[in-house]
């Protein structure tokens, strides 16, 4: 199996449970508080590592307690952190309030993530190509450098263009495989949010691909639709009891990268990633909801 290098964010999610979300100017008492490792980069790296890929997370942590906790968490998950810089100031942080109905309010503080610098990529030798995977929770210029470096070095590059940043539209043509959800697709392709598989495929066809392998759109309970060359491929999701879809997209991206790194072809890798994401939605949380390789393979059997 080849390896997966994720260039992405790591955040400490500080999660307070509240009876209802506070109004402007209001103070409310929380019923509980939890610190949970998060950030799209870390979540996707955990998904890839649990699927069995040798995995590294590059980016930046602060020299604070949260940074130390995040590094220890990534170590426990078997994720290499040698190129996760330790910079002055706080680590990335998300302040999350969740009410009794599960509705939330989230404030993200970029912290150290804003200082992340794209790592160098060694030129590819023989064998399956290593996979480079990025998202948009790091500076856009650095993500662009990373994708260009991946192309020069012959790596297979994946971009999960999330969150949707209109100013990052120029990057969506850079990776070998672009992954977006319906909302992000609407922003980057310049249309309304598609309803269903056919509308999503039609809208995705408007995105520039420059000969890249595929554009992949995740559709929640409808699974994914992928434009691969001239073909449109729909992989439906399993019908499962949903506990919380937080992290489903991150699970999909990380496992897709890992499956490609082990040499699966794109269609097989999409099916593997959909199976994994269908398991993640049955468990609470994001990073902690990522399934193990054996669970994903059992789901596919
Ligand atoms: P995001 O969270 O980024 O918006 P999606 O909601 O599209 O991403 O979910 C990503 C993937 O997770 C989907 O393509 C699907 O495979 C899986 N998934 C999400 N929601 C469900 C669901 N309700 N039932 C089964 N699978 C789901
Ligand atoms: Na989940």
TrEMBL record:
Known pathway: Carbohydrate metabolism; D-ribose degradation; D-ribose 5-phosphate from beta-D-ribopyranose: step 2/2
Enzyme class: transferase
Catalytic residue list: 250 (proton acceptor)
UniProt-annotated binding residues for ATP: 181, 218-223, 249-250
Swiss-Prot/TrEMBL catalytic activity: D-ribose + ATP = D-ribose 5-phosphate + ADP + H(+)
Keywords of this entry: ATP-binding, Carbohydrate metabolism, Cytoplasm, Kinase, Magnesium, Metal-binding, Nucleotide-binding, Potassium, Transferase
Annotated compartments: Cytoplasm
Binding site for K(+): 244, 246, 280, 283, 285
Lineage top rank: taxon: Bacteria
Pfam family of the protein (one): PfkB
Family: Belongs to the carbohydrate kinase PfkB family. Ribokinase subfamily.
GO MF annotation list: ATP binding; metal ion binding; ribokinase activity
Cofactor stoichiometry and binding remark: Requires a divalent cation, most likely magnesium in vivo, as an electrophilic catalyst to aid phosphoryl group transfer. It is the chelate of the metal and the nucleotide that is the actual substrate.
Protein role: Catalyzes the phosphorylation of ribose at O-5 in a reaction requiring ATP and magnesium. The resulting D-ribose-5-phosphate can then be used either for sythesis of nucleotides, histidine, and tryptophan, or as a component of the pentose phosphate pathway.
Domain Carbohydrate kinase PfkB: 1-291
Protein name as it appears in the record: Ribokinase
Subunit structure: Homodimer.
Gene: rbsK
Activity regulation statement: Activated by a monovalent cation that binds near, but not in, the active site. The most likely occupant of the site in vivo is potassium. Ion binding induces a conformational change that may alter substrate affinity.
Enzyme Commission no: 2.7.1.15
Cellular component aspect of the GO annotation: cytosol
UniProt-annotated binding residues for substrate: 11-13, 39-43, 137, 250
């Amino acid at each position: 199996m080849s390896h997966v290098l994720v260039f992405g964010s790591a955040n400490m999610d500080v999660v307070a449970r509240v009876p209802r979300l506070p109004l402007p100017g209001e103070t409310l008492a929380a019923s509980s508080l939890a610190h949970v490792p998060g950030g799209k980069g870390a979540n996707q790296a955990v998904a890839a590592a649990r699927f069995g890929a040798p995995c590294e997370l590059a980016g930046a942590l602060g020299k604070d307690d949260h940074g130390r906790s995040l590094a220890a968490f990534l170590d426990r998950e078997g994720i290499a952190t040698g190129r996760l810089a330790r910079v002055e100031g706080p680590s990335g942080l998300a302040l999350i309030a969740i009410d009794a109905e599960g509705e939330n309010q989230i404030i993200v503080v970029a912290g150290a993530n804003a200082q992340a610098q794209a790592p160098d990529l060694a030129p590819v030798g023989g064998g399956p190509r290593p996979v480079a995977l990025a998202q948009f929770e790091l500076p856009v210029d650095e993500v662009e450098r990373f994708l260009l470096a991946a192309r020069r070095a012959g790596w297979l590059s994946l971009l999960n263009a999330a969150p949707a940043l209109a100013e990052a539209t120029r990057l969506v043509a850079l990776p070998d495989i672009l992954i977006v959800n319906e909302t992000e697709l609407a922003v980057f392709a310049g249309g309304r949010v598609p309803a269903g598989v056919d509308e999503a495929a039609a809208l995705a066809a408007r995105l520039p691909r420059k000969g890249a392998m595929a554009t992949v759109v995740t559709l929640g309970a409808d699974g994914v639709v992928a434009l691969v060359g001239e073909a449109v491929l729909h992989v439906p999701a399993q019908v499962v009891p949903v506990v919380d879809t937080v992290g489903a997209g991150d699970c999909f991206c990380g496992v897709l990268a890992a499956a490609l790194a082990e040499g699966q072809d794109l269609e097989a890798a999409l099916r593997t990633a959909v199976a994994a994401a269908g398991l993640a939605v049955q468990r609470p949380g994001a990073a902690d909801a990522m399934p193990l390789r054996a669970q994903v393979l059992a789901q596919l059997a």
